[in-house]
Amino acid sequence: MAISAKELPLGKVFTPDFRFTIPSFQRAYIWKTENILQLVSDLDDACKSPGTPYFLGSLILVREGDNRYDVIDGQQRLVSLSIIIAVLRDLERDPDLMRQLDALLVEPGDKLRGIVTEPRLTLRERDAAFFREHVQEDNLESVFDMNDDDLATAAQRNIVANIRKTYDEISNWSDAGRQQFAQYLVNEVTLVIVTTDDLDGAHRIFDVMNMRGLPLTSSDVFKARATAGLSTAELDVYAARWDDIIDPIGDDPHDCEEFFAYLHLVLTHKPATDKLIEDFLADVLQPYIDKGTVPTFINQVLAPYAMAWRIIARPSDTVLPAEVRSRLEGLDDYRSHEWKPVAMWALVNSYRGLGDADLSPFVVRASRIARTTATLESLGAHDERRLLEILTALEQVTGIRTLNRAGTLERRGYANAAIRDLDKGYLVQRVNGLHVSDGDREGALVRLHGEMQGDGDLVRLLLIRANEQKAGMQLDRPRRFSALPIMPLDIERSKSFADWPQDQHDFWMYRLGNMALVQGPEDQLDRLSEYPARRDRMLLRADSRRFPLTNQLKDFADCTPALLEARQEESVRLIVEYWGIRYDKDARDLTKQNVDELSKTSPRPSHSSRRVTIRQVIDAGLLVPGERLVWDRPRKGERWFATVTENGRLRLDDGSEYPTPTAAARAAAGGRRGGGLDVWKRTRNGQKLSDIWKQFRLQAQ
């Protein structure tokens, strides 16, 4: 395999000496606006120093004859440079410079010399015509009139977004500034051109690039390996088919990796390792390569599972039944994603036609691109009742395991077990990974009745479930909404809570009964200490009042312990009814059981983030009323003191008192600090409050 390398300026690269083609097995154009704007900025800075070359890296090419080359590495830069040149050409007013810039993108041709007019760079087949028409052939204006429905691929969406951002940036420059930039681009920006004449060597280079940690996605590697053994006739067809399947997933490397990791789990039932590429190649792809059945893998495995992945991401846009869409939307509420492989399996095994290239389960809106929306019948729908049973059970166990703080490995193990049993044809009720034990139920009840401090996302999710159960339907949610406390954190100066003992306030502060869903940001009640003002702000917007448990606050003039207790019991009851865990195997109503008794029999979580109060630490003898705490900031020359009070608070030297170390730290520093346990120390021995709190937590276990 002969390799040659030479450094050339762009003015020598975009010439008849090179015709660049992006082969079909290559990835799509994935640069985002921040990538191309960074390149523009770097080049603009460099051009301020004329005579100083700017090295832009290397191109790795495979010679295909005469001046034609396949691009193995460098597509992202070549496309981005073409976009920059096209924008410069579009903004240029000098006809001669316009023609010269145009000649960098398209060979003008010469009939006398037998040179035909053609673009310097040809993208993959699916994007080539679009790029030529809207970028290389001086037609940027058409781009500004496009929306996402007019664009067939993720690459085209990236191209359009980058054109717009680059145009907006460069159009702000002066004519002289743009011309200076263009001259520098052509004469001083250089690339090292590495060429080989061996296609097999190109695939080896491709693999080496990945081993060196260059930013290839897992899909890039799998596609290159899968198509390497195909015949020339098959290569273009199935490389394009692969792109048709994977491109709509998007070009986020994390999403792509997650999809293939879960596909590996579905197909092999093997536990995950940190070697996805090696595992997927060996366990999934290699058997198809060895048998010469890669097209079967692409059409019958990759295509339906990738479509299932897309459905999971956008269920509301599909033609699937409303109940199925609703369950998938509910599952998407969870931060953990270990439910996804089970849902993928369920969808693929419920709709035989998910891999059909001519059908789409998504509702197609007005677009310049022709698509056919499938019907449930054309998708080969069968046993949708079982699909709904699986999704219902999956949402139930996902919610309960989230509540009971199951770890990632544990959740993945459950998913693996569920798919294994589903593959065996077990009834949903007998599938191990979808089973809820009495211990799970009791643990969920204990957690629901406990404090929820520091887990705002979980509180919001639980309240969504409770409100939808009370409403008897799925609720439209505001674009931005928060779970906010009915009581303020500090009731010292609040008339509304003057009769509340501090211990009672502390008990309810972080429980579900004190929380309500409200449209808007989390800090909207921070300056309101009176209940009527907080209630009225919560009910101000109609989007907040659509939540029944929030709207019912209008009926209460005062916030009392009885009100919060009633809200607590109702919220817990609604949640356990939603998940169907109100009764254990002996038909015992768990909502009627004493929580303390349940906590003795239910599995304890592996760790607890339950809030520890100053009062609890005093009662345990770990803090003494009257002792002094200090917070030093020597670099800023600042020092604050706080005194532990009899009623379980911290008093600053100005006489103000605060219920938590964090609140005291925030007040002392004028709102600039939040980690109170880490900053306050005992004056007598320098011990941090965080160490004292850890000691209490260990004793309480």
From TrEMBL:
InterPro entries for this protein: GmrSD_N (IPR004919), RAMA (IPR040843)
Lineage: superkingdom: Bacteria
Pfam families the UniProt entry points to: GmrSD_N (PF03235), RAMA (PF18755)
GmrSD restriction endonucleases N-terminal domain ranges (all copies): 15-225
Residue intervals of the RAMA domain: 598-699
PANTHER family (alphabetical): DUF5655 DOMAIN-CONTAINING PROTEIN (PTHR35149:SF1), SLL5132 PROTEIN (PTHR35149)
Protein name: DUF262 domain-containing protein
